[in-house]
Amino acid sequence: MKQKRIILIGALALLASTGMQAQKKKKEVMNDSNTPLHLLQPAYKVPYGALTIEGIKKDMDRVLHYLEANTPTRVINGKTGKAITDYSLIDKDSQLERGAFRLTSYEWGVTYSAMLAAVDATGDAAYMNYVTDRFKFLSEVAPYFRELMKEGKVDPQMRQILKPAALDDAGAVCAAMIKASQKDKSLKLNDLIENYMDFIMNKEYRLADGTFARTRPHWNTLWLDDMFMGIPPVVYYSKITGKDAQKYQAEAVRQVLQFAERMWVPEKNLFRHGWVEGMKEHPAFHWGRANGWALLTMCEVLDVLPEDYPQRDKIMSLFKSHVRGLAALQSGEGLWHQLLDRNDSYLETSATAIYVYCMAHAINKGWIDAMAYGPVVQLGWNAITTQINSEGQVENTCVGTGMAFDPAFYYYRPVNVYAAHGYGPVIWAGAEMINLMKHQHPKMNDSAVQFYQTEQKTTQPIFHADSPEASK
Q1: Residue ranges of the chain with pLDDT lower than 70?
Q2: Distance from C-alpha of 354 to C-alpha of 293, rounded to nearest angstrom
Q3: At what angle do helices 245-263 and 225-237 cross, to 10 degrees?
Q4: Which of 40, 130, 279, 319 has its CA 20 to 30 A from that of 155?
């Protein structure tokens, strides 16, 4: 009997203890009264918050090292694979060694320009060496392949340089060569630059009013892509041509405005991808990367034109409107959509990287407001970093894309790590973000990224900002 009583008392004590623990545990549940719920960490799908210059460069370097290893600079015998080091022995079987990417493509013209920007931002000579190694190589082998062209057979990659047949073959590489030649006077690129410019100015197909055009998929078609493929080399050529500078500046401005006249959609603050002269109505498909090419073109032109150049203000106004239209369409994951205004199309990396570069560059130049657009580019860069894999490959980049007038074409374009369009924009974006971090002072305030003109030294999670004047 006594043992049963002891067991009963123990059981009651255990129940009481359990009840007290349950009550205590219940009291510890977070609620509005005992926890600042607004400071809980959100479940972001991409990194959110602080950036460091060291972190940005680490991501850029991973891409650089991957490209260095996968874009060789050798001539080989196409049949035997044997390297040819004596270029006088180049013959009809000779070709550039094939890496993962083509050294003479427009995508690689973008990459060369990005590398040049990266050396300015980081001071790391490896980025400059990447460009000069390849441009020296191409300029050294070009005369020997030019001789082969007389026999009618030459490596297709070299044919792009020696006998361009489209703006894609000429413009982006030409612009990069002009920039590189200004940085390194030892580069012997003048013959290649002049050959490119002869095609762009005198041989490229145009509409009756002189606008760069194509005859595919329809007669007298404008591709928004051709703004970037044709206009930057023209405006940069004005920097090296001496007395004819105004001629090339005027041509660049004319092209921008004539493209915009046909392809700008003011109610969306976006460009359409394609325009056909014979169409009575013009469907507007706002493809992400093409809008990037247009925005990047305006950046390049604004960088070169004198501040007081006639009609520069028109291009600046168009640029700012485009930035507003794009910023409003950024996804919650930081990337932009393949078709910008269609949220059920996939998120795409190359367009995102171009926008991040252009907007960050515009902030750094004082064209747009850091407080308004700094958080946009910081979110965009954080999203881009999730698309750089451990090898340094850039993921979720749309492959080369033609022009269409139906949504399915754009929705189902493949993505691939070997789509070369993503690599240059990612490095260019990273370089400009480093420049941004040198001059701006982003800080978390009430859980949100805010950009400040001066450093906010507080460690509080929520704070009142210092007056910019007070900190001077």
Answers
A1: 1-27, 469-472
A2: 8
A3: 160
A4: 130
What confidence score (pLDDT) does residue 314 get? 98
Residue 468, pLDDT score: 73
Whole-angstrom CA distances from 78 to 81, 91, 101, 133 are: 6, 10, 17, 22
Helix (H, G, I), strand (E, B) or coil at 449: strand
CA 443/CA 118 separation, integer angstroms:
24
Check residue 335 and give its pLDDT: 98
Q: How far is CA 199 from CA 202, 226, 230, in A?
A: 5, 14, 10
Distances (CA, A) of 136 to 141, 320, 371: 9, 38, 42
- 386-406 in b/e form (b: 16+ CB < 10 A) is bbbeeebbbebbbebbebbbe
Domain ranges of the chain: 44-439, 440-472
Contact 443, 464 (CB under 8 A): no
Q: Determine contact, residues 387/349, Cβ cutoff 8 Å.
A: yes
Give the pLDDT score at 3: 55
Q: Does domain 44-439 have CATH number 1.50.10.10?
A: yes
